[in-house]
Amino acid sequence: MELFDSHSHLNDEKFEQDRYEIINDIYKNGVKNFITAGYSAESSKLAIDIANKYEFIYAIVGISPNDIPQNGEQLWKQILEIKEIAQKNKKVVAIGEIGLDYYWNTDNKQLQKNAFIEQIKLANELNLPIVIHTRDAIMDTISILKENNVKNTGVFHCCPQNPELIKEALKLGFYISFAGPITFKNSKHADEIINLVPNDRILIETDSPYLAPEPVRGTRNTPINVKYIAKKIADCKGISLEEVASITTKNAKMIFKISN
Q1: Mind listing the pLDDT tens digit for each residue in 236-260?
Q2: Which residue in 38, 9, 114 sits closest to 69, CA to CA?
Q3: Is-above-0.85 flag for pTM?
Q4: CATH number at residue 100
Q5: Residue 85: phi, psi to the nearest 5?
Q6: Rounded to the nearest 5°, which phi and psi values hold at 2?
Q7: Residue 133 CA to chain centroid, in angstroms?
Q8: Residue 183 in domain
Q9: Reduced to 3 states, what is the DSSP secondary structure of residue 83?
Q10: What is the number of domains present in the chain?
Q11: Alpha-carbon gap, residue 175 to 248, rounded angstroms
């Protein structure tokens, strides 16, 4: 059985001391592919560095809504930097994570929207999909996607458990990626949400080092734990863990155009 963690942050400082030992353990534990996600220019460069060391690791690069600079000039400079590093590296499979987050900051909504739109344009220019982060900003996120053509669609990462968001995202051709929260004991509607997503549009991820799933909740998360998300989906859909692994690996390779 081979698993594909479609979104992790092995570039996070929480892995500074033992990053490469953990990567070796990840592969030995059946996670045969995973993606390290950037969220700023610097973290995107590190994501690429990590991906270039291993055949089975890929990178996405972008500026998240929680990491955008506080003025338009600096934002544009960083987007150009993202463009440059994405053009130079074949291991870059998407622009992300990008989007909107009104949970942490509502003072810069327009700047967040500008960053989102400009990075959609960048993804279109580079013929790449996008990976979306959205929190407490569902209506604005969907509006931007409807108003700005996304050439290669993409993924709603760590997708909020909101049925209307999922329905709209699926209509727009996006994939839905689930993480640890669907396993949490207080996640009352997880089964309903999972069953909204057809098998050919579902992905699994850890978003590590955050959001460790049950039964390891509260620990530092790693891609090894993606099996628990897969198990939850298998139980919910009434199919085997092996089927979920196969389906989600195929889907990840499809949206990210990975051939091996």
Answers
A1: 999 999 999 999 999 999 999 998 7
A2: 114
A3: yes
A4: 3.20.20.140
A5: -70, -30
A6: -120, 130
A7: 7
A8: yes
A9: helix
A10: 1
A11: 10
Report whether 219 contacts 212 (CB < 8 A). yes
Cβ neighbours for 2, distance < 8 A, ≥ 6 positions apart: 30, 31, 32, 33, 245, 249
Domain containing 55 equals 3-255
The one-letter amino acid code at 156 reads: F
pLDDT tens across 92-140, in order?
999 999 999 999 888 899 999 999 999 999 999 999 999 999 999 999 9
The answer to whether residue 24 is domain-embedded is yes
In-domain check, residue 260: no
Interatomic CA distance for residues 173 and 256, integer angstroms = 14
Residues 9-68 have pLDDT tens digits of 999 999 999 999 999 999 999 999 999 999 999 999 999 999 999 999 999 999 999 999
**Identity of the amino acid at 120:** I
Euclidean distance between CA atoms 195 and 193, whole angstroms: 5
Say which residues have a Cβ less than 8 Å from residue 239's Cβ, sequence separation at least 6: none
Q: For residue 124, is it within any domain? A: yes
Neighbours of 24 (CB within 10 A): 10
